[in-house]
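ok, trying the design again with the full structure, not the truncated one.
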């Protein structure tokens, strides 16, 4: 009887494991991370069936088991933090063409500047609406994402399995409220997708967030008809790189102003779900890295912008006239402790010069143990991501939460006119280095 119990133990465990894999498949689809575990079950069954037992086989199966356990942990189907606001989140995407500007990245002299822009906004009803995936068209994006991150392409192949907290084409709450606007600019080789935890957080608090992909600066921009604007900004080492970056900064700044133009048009359209629901007197901008420089230049030039917050911003390409003129709206910079290990060690010197000439309240705070990509969703993607990319050693949840709350606190104070309590609370964090 004892022998019989032993004989059925292995097949029972195999059966339970197979059921678990099948359930996982129907929940999140076929993931390459679980393939080693799948093949391991086959090998264990073969060894059991034919009584293949020796030290070498045991050793190999142990290694295989270790790999099967580590892979799903190291490259997980991660989750975005649940937004903390009172609203759920809706999202939609626009394709906008700026007929007033030619596209200088392409060879065709007749090409106009085109943008893909995604919006996140508050909603109170998501019935009959589906959650969006973190990234679309991954069959096109995976290679370019991997190239930007300097990792194998298969490591990005699961990003279209990750669901966000945003519901496609859900509508604004059925009331007459108007909502403040926030526009965000991504970094070079970045994407609007890489800051969705921040966008969802703000939308859940009652903001309407617009994020463009800056065509040819973004990792990959995909237009509705299938055309793509690939990444063409790899000019590192070019003797004219700063001059080219200044031209790009000009283009990107005009992208932001064009987005505001389009927002104004949407607000006037009675057929638009955003028609009459945007408070155009309360527009803030933000950005990460080169997107921070973009937001800074846009806020310097466009009087419709009322506040600017930037994340580990690259300020060096800003012109001397902007630096000496200073930002004319409330300005906030949060970033890593130092840029000394980068190609632009004087970046914070440029920032301090800008702040010294700024006319409204301006701040520069640094967050301990952070690196450049901590100011995005990338820390959420793997517990080992810091081994391969510019991510510090903070817990992903801690840094993402701090960035989200600090951004929200700044906007509440300077866009909504609050007493600043939320911002002050976030600045009390032990991770914050105040100048």
């Amino acid at each position: 009887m004892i022998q019989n119990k032993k004989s059925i133990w292995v097949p029972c465990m195999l059966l339970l494991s197979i059921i678990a894999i099948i359930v996982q498949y129907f929940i999140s689809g076929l993931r390459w991370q679980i393939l080693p575990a799948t093949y391991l079950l086959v090998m264990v069954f073969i060894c059991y069936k034919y009584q293949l037992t020796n030290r070498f086989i045991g050793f190999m199966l142990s290694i295989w088991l270790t790999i099967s356990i580590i892979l799903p942990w190291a490259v997980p189907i991660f989750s975005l933090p649940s937004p903390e606001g009172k609203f759920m989140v809706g999202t939609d995407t626009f394709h906008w063409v700026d007929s007033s500007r030619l596209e200088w990245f392409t060879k065709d002299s007749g090409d106009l500047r085109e943008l893909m822009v995604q919006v996140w906004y508050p909603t109170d009803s998501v019935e009959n609406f589906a959650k969006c995936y973190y990234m679309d068209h991954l069959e096109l994006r995976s290679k370019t994402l991997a190239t930007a991150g300097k990792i194998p392409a298969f490591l990005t192949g699961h990003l279209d399995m990750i669901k966000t907290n945003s519901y496609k084409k859900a509508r604004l709450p059925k009331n007459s409220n108007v909502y403040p606007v926030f526009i965000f600019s991504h970094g070079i080789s970045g994407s609007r997708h890489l800051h969705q935890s921040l966008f969802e957080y703000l939308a859940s608090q009652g903001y309407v967030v617009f994020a463009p992909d800056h065509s040819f600066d973004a990792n990959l921009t995909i237009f509705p008809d299938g055309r793509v604007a690939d990444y063409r900004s790899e000019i590192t080492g070019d003797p004219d790189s700063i001059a080219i970056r200044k031209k790009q900064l000009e283009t990107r700044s005009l992208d932001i102003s064009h987005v505001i133009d389009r927002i104004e048009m949407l607000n006037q359209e009675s057929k638009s779900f955003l028609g009459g629901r945007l408070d155009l007197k309360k527009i803030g901008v933000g950005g990460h890295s080169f997107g921070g420089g973009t937001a800074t230049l846009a806020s310097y030039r466009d009087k419709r912008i009322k506040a600017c917050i930037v994340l580990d911003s690259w300020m060096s390409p800003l012109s001397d006239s902007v630096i000496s003129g200073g930002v004319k709206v409330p300005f906030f910079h949060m970033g890593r402790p130092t840029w000394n290990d980068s190609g632009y060690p004087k970046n914070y010197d440029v920032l301090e010069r800008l702040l010294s000439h700024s006319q409204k309240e301006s701040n520069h705070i640094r967050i301990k143990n952070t690196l450049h990509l901590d100011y995005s969703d990338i820390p959420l993607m793997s517990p080992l991501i810091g081994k391969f990319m510019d991510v510090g050693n903070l817990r992903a949840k801690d840094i993402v939460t701090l960035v989200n709350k600090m951004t929200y606190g700044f906007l509440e104070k300077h866009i909504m006119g609050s007493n600043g309590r939320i911002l002050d609370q976030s600045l009390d964090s032990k991770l914050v280095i105040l100048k």
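Keeping the full-length input from now on. Residues 241-268 form the longest helix (28 residues).
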